[in-house]
Design a protein that fits this description.
Shape: elongated
CATH class of the largest domain: Mainly Beta
CATH architecture of the largest domain: Beta Barrel
Distance between the termini: 122 Å
Structural class: mainly beta
CATH topology of the largest domain: L,D-transpeptidase catalytic domain-like
Helix content: under 10%
Largest sheet: 5 strands, mixed
Strand order of the largest sheet: 22-21-20-28-23
Number of domains: 3
Length: 399
């Protein structure tokens, strides 16, 4: 005997069983060793099947500002499209066609470099990205719009927002869609073209006092006519002041001034004499002059008059109708009509007397106030003659 106790067969079997049970080996399912199957690794490492296409091509120059930019995905869907201009501002757009296409919401600016970043996913969720840059065209011919009222101004309830373009517009929808107007409180505002070089915007009825109006001109890059592009990007704000609507009765030779619906003064006036009757209808004050010169030759009336110091003059039409002070009219005011089409109020030469009717009315008026003429023998003023679109019905305006 060597002094060692023999291990029993039962004990040895139990030990072997324990080793077998805890060893973690054997022919169990794949991946039990913490490693992915080779075929899964191979699948995950395959490139995405999604194919991104960006037009125009990377590095393109003189790209059209409308219709040229488009992003598409084949064998997958777009998950991110980011287009930025040279200042890092994002270009609005949306993914459409079930995630397979994207295009900008509006035109691009001219002479601007844009960066495009696109990400698409295939059915397996694998991503494919693409980055490009391009530069839009630099136009040889451009246009802008001169606008009224001025930025930051307070105006009367009849004031439209009016744009007069430096070139005739043959793509009116593109230009109109590039002018957006928001108001506080909100009110629908629509635009109307007068000819091909003027676009006015107004609500259905006179503005409510206190309304805040914001106009965004996004004309930069808009093709207004073939080969002629806008170069204007500006935000304009103005506020509607109190309501003042004055009604001139050409037959009674008087004007009733209403402020916020209440009569605040009745003023004797003189309107156009027979053959030179004052336009009828609604007219809006568009310009104001403490003193101005009025020469009949500028309104195709020959040498009828040339008055170098007309006081307290406020323009009502482009064709030369004013409501103004008159120091030469003697006893006409309130009794008979004596002018060549203007509305005259008693005044003094030099306009120094603040107590005469013309001075009072001038001091209590602002651009955008409404002057209505009734009982005139002349027809209603053309809506295009001055800022007088209120003489069109809403259905005509929006047609």
């Amino acid at each position: 005997m060597n002094g060692r106790r023999p291990i029993s067969a039962a004990l040895l079997g139990a030990a072997l069983l324990l080793v077998t049970a805890c060893g973690g080996g054997g022919s169990g399912s794949g991946g039990s060793d913490g490693k992915a199957k080779p075929e899964k690794v191979e699948q995950a490492n395959k490139p995405s099947e999604a194919v991104v296409t960006v037009a125009p091509e990377d590095g393109a120059h003189a790209v059209a500002t409308s219709g040229a930019l488009r992003v598409t995905a084949a064998h997958g869907t777009l998950s991110e499209v980011k287009v930025t201009d040279g200042e890092g501002d994002a270009v609005a757009g949306k993914i459409a066609d079930g995630g397979t296409s994207w295009k900008p919401a509006s035109h691009l600016a001219s002479a601007t470099t844009y960066k495009v970043h696109v990400v698409a996913k295939d059915k397996a969720g694998r991503v494919s990205a693409k980055d490009t840059t391009f530069t839009t065209l630099t136009p040889k011919n451009t246009f802008i719009g001169y606008f009224t009222p001025e930025d930051g101004s307070t105006v009367g309830v009849g004031m439209p927002f009016s744009l007069r373009f430096t070139r005739g517009i043959t793509h009116p929808d593109a230009v109109k869609d590039s002018v957006s107007i928001t108001t506080k409180p909100s009110v629908p505002v629509e635009g109307h073209w007068f000819g091909n070089d003027r676009l006015d915007f107004r609500p259905e009825h006179y503005w409510k006092p206190g309304t805040e109006v914001t106009v965004k001109l996004d004309l930069d890059g808009v093709e207004g006519r073939p080969g002629v592009y806008g170069k204007q990007a500006k935000t304009v704000t103005f506020t509607i002041g109190r309501s003042q609507v004055s009604t001139v009765d050409a037959k009674k030779h008087e004007m009733t001034v209403r402020r916020d619906g209440k009569v605040i003064r009745t003023i004797p006036v003189s309107t156009g004499k027979p053959g030179y009757d004052t336009w009828g209808g609604q007219m809006v004050i568009s310009q104001r002059f403490k003193v101005t010169r009025m020469n009949s030759e500028t309104v195709n009336l020959g040498s009828e008059y040339d008055i170098k110091d007309v006081p307290h003059a406020q323009r009502l039409t482009d064709s030369g109708t004013f409501i103004h002070g008159n120091y030469w009219g003697a006893g006409a005011f309130g009794h008979y009509n004596s002018s060549h089409g203007c509305i005259g109020l008693r005044d003094v030469r030099g306009g120094y007397d603040k107590h005469v009717p013309a001075a009072w009315f001038y001091d209590h008026s602002m651009i955008g106030d409404v002057v209505i003429v009734k009982n005139s023998h002349e027809r209603t003023v053309s809506p295009a003659n001055g800022l007088n679109g209120w003489n069109m019905s809403w259905s005509q305006w929006t047609k």
